[in-house]
Amino acid sequence: MQIAVTVNGRLHERSVEPRRLLCDFLRDDLGLTGTRVGCEHGACGSCTILVDGESARSCLMFAVQADGAELTTVEGLAPDGGLHPLQAAFREAHGLQCGFCTPGILMTMLPFLDENPDPDEAEIRTALSGNLCRCTGYQNIVKAVLIAAGVATNGESSQ
Amino acid sequence: MHDFAFHRPSSLSDAVAAMQAAGEGKFMAGGQSLLPVMKLDLAQPTDVISLAGLGELRGIRVEDGAVVVGAATTHAEVADSDVVRGSIPALADLAGQIGDPQVRNRGTLGGSVAHADPAADYPAALLALGATVVTDRREIPADDFFQGMFATALAEDEIVTAVRFPIPDGAAYAKFPNPASKYAIVGVMVARTGSGVRVGVTGASPTPHRASRFEAALAADFSPSAIAGITIDPSGLASDPDASAAYRAHLVGVMAKRAVEACG
Ligand SMILES: Cc1cc2nc3c(=O)[nH]c(=O)nc-3n(C[C@H](O)[C@H](O)[C@H](O)COP(=O)(O)OP(=O)(O)OC[C@H]3O[C@@H](n4cnc5c(N)ncnc54)[C@H](O)[C@@H]3O)c2cc1C
Ligand code: FES
Ligand code: FES
């Protein structure tokens, strides 16, 4: 089936089987391997991308459903090879260890911060409820989001 | 996963026709329940018919004392809707408690009621508010709609187009969520309506149901203490690693009291 999908501002026209998952289309067909596939069952959130600006699990969508849509993956955050302020905050606060969950968390937090520019810790944790991290214990992830929002600096505790 | 033919009808009648022509067809809305089911091969459709292009399934409006929510409305849209927040805040609150942001951005009201997961949130609201499920061919009262675990009154080729929620005098939803998925281990909505008090319970049993003894007690005295002495019989309630039937029975009472309290 023929589809046309805009990913990080670039239009891709491809032929895909209807059963092709969107995450596999991004990683294997387009070579955009920044999007991670963890559980592949809708539980871990590591495959989260933006579909028309809203966070969605790319393992719970078929590529054909994205026909005509505008997608943003982690590669689209800082296209110039630098770091997006949210990424810089994760580096500053040690918001990642192995980093497997990080692309999904970044793509969940991006629209969240747009809608909630001044979040508190509880709101961040609620917004993170669809993303699992096996390493950090979330503490530094929350701190990184607070830093990105300008609510905290690294010296300040998030508790 | 087995391959299938993907259809994108642009009208309700085309969608029904595509289903009738299909071998083993499945409608798809947000796919947040259908994809997991297909990955497990619990459904192996030959044809997947997307409802995403149907304008008839969209929109939220107030009509004759009820809020009419189109079936393709996402949980996030219900949670954020000024119309819903203004007329049935408990419904917006319930939608905002479904799953996580990613699920709420794609999952829909129609998909949730048609799927009839015994741990889904919306069924409690449909029952408590005395809602009507509107389909492409008829109207089904909520009390007749849910018929068992993943079972509803819908025919194979029938499409939910909207749900009509009568505006209550007051309502509140209290849920005890699974901490990982947020599905309701037990969820209770209590509503005060012109025709009495209605209590909808989800998560507790294979089929969502109304708690009639609570309704009678609350009709006489709308206060948490009015139902404090009523014990729920655990026989027939669900029992799984999350919660035993006895614990669920206890939770029904606790959630109902919290909802009554929040109702004011
Ligand atoms: C991680 C996760 C957590 C979740 N947590 C919760 C939770 O806390 N509470 C909760 O209630 N739900 C939860 N869900 C389920 C979620 O709400 C789903 O969105 C919902 O159950 C199905 O909606 P959908 O639009 O995705 O439907 P789909 O998956 O597209 O369809 C589901 C079924 O309904 C049928 N269908 C869809 N639309 C229609 C229609 N208009 N007419 C007739 N049939 C139709 C389909 O054929 C299919 O059989 C969760 C899901 C996930 C993945
Ligand atoms: S890979 Fe998509 S939710 Fe885990
Ligand atoms: S940093 Fe390893 S899973 Fe989150």
Structural account:
The complex is a heterodimer of chains A (159) and B (264). Chain A has 159 residues and is of the alpha+beta class. Helix content of chain A is 30%, strand content 14%. Chain A folds into 2 domains: 2-76, Ubiquitin-like (UB roll); 85-153, [2Fe-2S]-binding domain (DNA polymerase, domain 1), CATH 1.10.150.120. Chain A has 5 helices and 5 strands, in the order ββαβββαααα. Chain A has a 5-stranded mixed sheet, with helices on one face. The longest helix of chain A is centred in the last third of the chain and has 14 residues, at 102-115. Chain A starts with a strand and ends in an 11-residue tail after the last helix. The model of chain A has no long low-confidence stretch (mean pLDDT 95). With 264 residues, chain B is an alpha+beta fold. Chain B starts with a strand and ends with a helix. Flavin-adenine dinucleotide (FAD) binds at residues 26-34, 51, 71, 98-99, 103, 107-108, 110-112, 114-115, 117, 120-122, 154, 159-160, 181-183 of chain B.
Please supply descriptive tags for the structure shown above:
heterodimer, A: 159 residues, Ubiquitin-like (UB roll), DNA polymerase, domain 1, 2 domains, five-stranded mixed beta sheet, elongated, B: 264 residues, alpha+beta, Uridine Diphospho-n-acetylenolpyruvylglucosamine Reductase, domain 2, four-stranded antiparallel beta sheet, 12 helices, 14 strands, binds flavin-adenine dinucleotide, binds FE2/S2 (inorganic) cluster
